[in-house]
User: What shape does this take?
Amino acid sequence: MIDLDCGLLPPETDDHFLGLEHAQHVGTEALLTTRDNVEAVIEAKATMCICGPASSG
Assistant: This one.
């Protein structure tokens, strides 16, 4: 049986993004639109679903 810790973040030692020197977000139009939508949903105390193709961030 596979042990899945659904909903849990990996420990910092296993999070591969933490070891990337000089890693940065890239402010694409999709990222900025998503950010604006998330902010609006939080202000409205509403619910939102974000989905996209694999590796879309």
User: Anything to note?
Assistant: The chain has a mean pLDDT of 79. The longest helix spans residues 29-44. DSSP finds one helix and no strands in the chain. Residues 17 and 23 are 8 Å apart (CA to CA).
